[in-house]
Design brief:
This protein is mostly helical. The protein contains 8 helices and no strands.
């Protein structure tokens, strides 16, 4: 984070009864505590860009009021300034507004094909693989074929399948498990070819 650039041109202040830091000394202080302040900010806001902004705000506030702190307590003081900046940020009207959905959660606008159709070759390959997998499921030997079709393709529960087929639930669970093992082996063999 290029925070040190912010303070390069600032003239020295003469504090009223406090300690005075030169620009180089403050830059060294920033280098020493930059990661700590960033981590504190990130723990509050959970956004790296906002945490960087709040880190800069923290050091700006610290530079303006550095004369009010005893040098032995710089670390604790910077953490307190950072946490207060974060709390102020989280209480602000800007942050409290209703958050818009992320781009990947928004529905596709009309007239634009769905994301999977943007690359026709990948869509075709995915469709072929899905059809091949469905064929493998339907072609499993009994007693696994019917159970796997109902569970994996028709999305029925184990309890419902057991009721429809008149089998115990534990038997259906074992058959679903074994069907998955067989399918996994067939898929691995298919990929090796």
């Amino acid at each position: 984070m290029p925070v040190a650039v912010l303070f390069a041109a600032r003239p020295q202040r003469t504090p009223q009864g406090g300690c005075q830091l030169k620009n180089e000394e403050f830059a060294q202080l920033m280098q020493q505590y930059q990661r700590l302040v960033y981590t504190v900010c990130y723990q509050f806001v959970h956004n790296p860009h906002t945490a960087e902004d709040l880190t800069q705000d923290t050091f700006l506030a610290a530079y303006a009021h550095i004369d009010q702190c005893d040098p032995a307590y710089y670390r604790q003081w910077l953490v307190r300034v950072a946490s207060n900046k974060c709390k102020d940020h989280l209480k602000s009207a800007w942050v409290r507004r209703v958050q818009a959905q992320q781009d990947d959660q928004l529905p596709e606008p009309r007239g634009i094909p769905p994301a999977e159709a943007r690359n026709p070759e990948e869509a075709m390959i995915a469709r072929d693989e899905a059809e091949a997998l469905q064929a493998m499921i339907r072609n499993l030997r009994e007693p696994y074929g019917r159970v796997a079709t109902m569970y994996l393709l028709e999305h029925k529960t184990v309890a419902l399948i057991a009721q429809l087929l008149g089998r115990p639930e534990k038997t259906v669970q074992n058959q679903v498990f074994r069907a998955k093992v067989i399918l996994r082996q067939q898929i691995q063999e298919r990929r090796q070819v």
